[in-house]
Amino acid sequence: MSVEHVVSFDRRSFMKVATGVITGVIAATSPLAALVPSRAWAVDLGALTDAQGAALLAMIRTIAPHDALDSAAYALVVAALDKDAAASAAVKSDLLTGITTLGVGFAQSPESARIAQLKAIESSAFFQGVRVKTLLVLYNNPIAFAHFGYEGEAFSKGGYLFRGFNDLKWLPEVPLADSGPMPV
Amino acid sequence: MAQFDLNDDSVAVIIGSGAGGGTMAHELTRRGIKVVLLEAGGRLTPADFSQDPGAAFGQLTWLDPRTQSGTWDAAKTSPNMPAWHCKTLGGTTVHWTAATPRLQRYEMEARSTYGDVPGTSLVDWPIDHSELKRWYVLAEKRMGVTRRHGMPGMPACNNFKVMYAGARKIGYKRVHTNYLAINTKARDGRGGCIQQGFCSQGCKTAAKWSTLYTEIPRAEATGHLDLRTRSFATRIEHDVAGRANAVIYRDSQGNEQRQKARLVCVAGNAIETARLLLLSDSARFPKGLANGSDQVGRNYCHHLTSFIWGVFDQPVYAWRGATLAGVVEDENIHNPTRGFVGGYHLELVALDLPTLPLVGMPYGWGRGFTDLIDNYRNLAGMLINGEDMPQANNRITLSSTGKDANGLPVAHIHCDDHPNDIALRNHARQQGTKMYEAIGARQVVTSPGSVATHQMGTARMSKDPSQGVTNPYGRSHEVPNLFMSDGSVLSTPGAANPTLTIVSLALRQAEHITKEMAAGRV
Ligand SMILES: Cc1cc2nc3c(=O)[nH]c(=O)nc-3n(C[C@H](O)[C@H](O)[C@H](O)COP(=O)(O)OP(=O)(O)OC[C@H]3O[C@@H](n4cnc5c(N)ncnc54)[C@H](O)[C@@H]3O)c2cc1C
Ligand code: SF4
To answer: Which chain A residue has the Cα nearest residue B153?
Structure first.
C-alpha cells in the first residue's frame, strides 16, 4: 500500500465497485500536508462497507495505538485488508465474519472496552491476520516515516556519511583507537 | 564465459554461489580448474537492489516454504520462516551485515574446554586454531576487513557512541567499531562506505564485500567458469564405486539436466546442503549421500540472538550508519562462573522502521507494544550473538508435509533450546540492559530470539567419522570427491559470526582440492 491510495477527497473518482469509504482531514500544521494530495483525504473500499471499514480502523488503532499518528496511515491498513478481500471470496468471508464478531458498537466504544474485546479473540486467525497486516503496512509508508522521523533510504542522497550519522552530541566522542577516522 | 558440455566429466561442479561457493569458484578457476557453478537464484547488480526494505527482502530472500518444530524462539516469532538466507547470485553475502570476527582457540576446543555438557554433542574441531588463523589472515586480506591489515576502522556512528559509553561505564574494555568486511576507503576496485545503513538490502555502493561483485566476476574473467543461474540442484549421483559423478538440476527453463562431474562442492547454505544430501539417497547410501554416520543434518546450530533496545531522552537516529559497526568482546570468553559454558558478542544493530516491529520486538500489541516505536528516534540497539550448543536432535530432515515448486520435500528444522542456551542468552540480556541503564536509559526492551540468520554444523568436520560428515578439509568421510564448502562444516559455532570462517575454510579447501587433483587422488 502506498500513499497514492490516499487520494484527495474532492477529486477522487469513486471506484466503480466502491462499497465504502474512509475519510479524514489532515491538520494544516502536520508535516503530512505536504505528502498527500489534499488535506481532505479518502480511501475507497472495494469489498467493505463504511461501517465495516470503520470497525477495522478502530481495531487497528487498538492493536497499534499511536495517538498522534494520522488516521490516513491506519486507513492504508484497512485498504490493504480490503484489497485482499476483494481479490478472494474466501478471504472476504473470513474477514466479514471476523468483523461481525466485533459487534456493532465496536468502533464507538472506549479503548478499554475494545482492548477487552480483542483480548478475548487474540488467538483467532482473524485477529492475528489483522495484527500481522498492521505490522506490515502501518510502518512502511511515507506517512509513518514522517511521523516517526525515519529518514529511509539515503543512497540517493549520498548516504548519511555527511548527513548526521555521527552527529550525536549528548555523549562523549569515541577515542580514535576504538573507532576510525572520517574518510577524506 | 566458458561453456562446458553436460557430458564433460572433468569439471568441478559447485552448488551455491554465496560465501563458500562463490569463493570456491574463484579459487578453483584461478588455478585453471574448470568449474560449473549452479545457483538457484538469478543475477542482480547493485543498481537493481531495491531501497524499499519490504521489496528488497522479496528480491533477495529464499522464500521456498519450510516446516519446523521445537522449543526455540523462532518457532513462535517466525513460524513460517524460521531461517533467513538468500536465493540470488552471491548468496547471503548480498544480505549480510559483514561482521567478520575470528573464532577463539577455546571455541575450537569446545569439547575439551567445556567438558561433558549433558545433552550436547560437542566436539573439538579437527583443525588447530593456529592453522585456521593462517587462513583468517588470507581471507581478511581478500575481503578487506576493517581494523585488520591496514584497513581503517569504521568511524563511530551515533548508535555506537551509546554502546561505547554504556559498555565503558560498566567496565567493559574490548569495545570498538567491529571487524567488518566493508571498505572504509576505496580498495580493490570498490568505493568506501557512505554510511547509509541499508547493508541488509544489498549494498548499492559495493563497499561491503559480496561474492556477487568480487569473487564471481573474477572467476568469470579466468575463462574457466560456466555460471548457470536459476539452476536448482535436486540430486547428486554416484557411480558403482561410490564416487560422486553427476549433479541433476532444474535449469532456468525448468527442464531437468544432468551435469557430469569430476568432483562436487556443495555450498547451498547449511540447511539446503543437508537437504540436498538427504534428497540424494540411493541403494548404497540409504540414509542420504555421505550419511553412513547418520550425522547429516544433525548438530544444527544458529547462534543465540536477542535484540536489546535502550530508550533514551535524546535522539540517537540509530538507522544512520553501517548496521553492525560496533561490538563488545569482553564476554567472548569461557568463564563457567557466569552459569554457562561458551560466550557471546554484543553487536551494534539498528533496524529500519518497517522491519523493527516485524523482527525486532517481543510479541505484543496495544500501548505496551507501540511505546517503543513511538520512541523510534531515541532508540539505541544491540544484538546478542552467542554460542549455542550442538545437539544431536537439533536437525534438518526432509519435511513430511511441505513440498517445493518441483514437488520435492522441503527442509524441516527441529530445534530445542539447551539449558545452557537459555542461561547464556539471559546473561547477555542482563548485561546489555545494564549497559543502557548505566547511562540513563528510560527503558530497556529485549526481544525473544528471532529468525535464524547463521546456519551451521549440518555436515560438520570431525576427526572421528562417526561424529560428523566431513574430514578436516570439509571432504566427505565416505565419498572421496564430495566436499562441503559452506557453513555446514563448522564443527561448533563459537560466538563468531560465521562468514569469515566459511571463507577461510573455502580458501583452505581449494588449496587441498588442487593438490589432491594434481596428485590424482580426486
Ligand atoms: C540479514 C543477515 C545478516 C547477516 N550478517 C552477517 C554478518 O554480519 N556476519 C557474518 O559472518 N554472517 C552474517 N550473516 C550470515 C551469512 O550471510 C552466512 O553465514 C553466509 O552467507 C553463509 O554462506 P554459505 O556459503 O553457507 O551460504 P549462502 O551465502 O547463503 O549461499 C548459498 C547459496 O546457495 C544457493 N543454493 C542453495 N541450494 C541450492 C541448490 N539446491 N541448487 C543451487 N543453488 C542452491 C542459494 O540460493 C544461495 O545463493 C547474515 C545473514 C543474514 C540473513
Ligand atoms: S552502510 Fe556502508 S556497507 Fe552498509 S549498505 Fe551502506 S555503504 Fe554499504
So the answer is: A180
**Segments forming the whole domain that contains residue A89:** 11-154
Cβ–Cβ below 8 Å for A139 and B373: yes
Within chain B, what is the greatest distance between any pair of CA atoms? 70
**B454 Cβ inside 6 Å of ligand 1:** yes
- Quick check: is A122 in a domain? yes
From first CA to last CA, the distance across chain B in angstroms is: 25
Identify the closest residue of chain A to B314 by CA–CA distance. A170
Domain count across chain A: 1
Contact between chains at B205 and A159 (C-beta distance less than 8 A)? yes
For B42-185, list the strands marked E by DSSP.
67-69, 175-176
pLDDT per residue of chain B (522 residues) written in tens, 0 to 9: 899 999 999 999 999 999 999 999 999 999 999 999 999 999 999 999 998 888 898 999 999 999 999 999 988 888 889 999 999 999 999 999 999 999 999 999 999 999 999 999 999 999 999 999 999 999 999 999 999 999 999 999 999 999 999 999 999 999 999 999 999 999 999 999 999 999 999 999 999 999 999 999 999 999 999 999 999 999 999 999 999 999 999 999 999 999 999 999 999 999 999 999 999 999 999 999 999 999 999 999 999 999 999 999 999 999 999 999 999 999 999 999 999 999 999 999 999 999 999 989 989 999 999 999 999 999 999 999 999 999 999 999 999 999 999 999 999 999 999 999 999 999 999 999 999 999 999 999 999 998 999 999 999 999 999 999 999 999 999 999 999 999 999 999 999 999 999 999 999 999 999 999 999 999
Residue nearest to atom 23 of ligand 1 (CA): B19
Q: How far is B177 from chain A (nearest CA, A)?
A: 5
Distance, in Å, from the CA atom of B195 to the CA atom of A151, rounded to the nearest integer, reads 13
A164 touches chain B (CB under 8 A): yes
Which residue's C-alpha cell is 578487506? B144
∠ CA B39-B45-B51, rounded to 5°: 115
Using alpha carbons, select from A10, A81, A11, A78 the residue that is nearest to residue A43.
Answer: A78
DSSP string across A144-183: HHHHHT-----GGGT-STTTTTT---SSPPPPGGGS-PPP
Q: Answer whether B356 touches A (CB < 8 Å).
A: yes
Cα B462–chain centre separation: 20
Strand partners, B470: B461, B476
Where do the structural domains in chain B lie, given as residue ranges? 12-518
The pTM score is 0.95
> Does the distance separating the beta carbons of B53 and A64 come in below 8 Å?
no
Q: At what angle do helices B129-143 and B499-518 cross, to 10 degrees?
A: 100
May I ask the CATH architecture of the domain B12-518? 3-Layer(bba) Sandwich (3.50)
Instruction: Using the CB atoms, write b or e for B212-221: b if 16+ within 10 Å.
Output: bbbbbebbbe
In a domain, A54, yes or no: yes
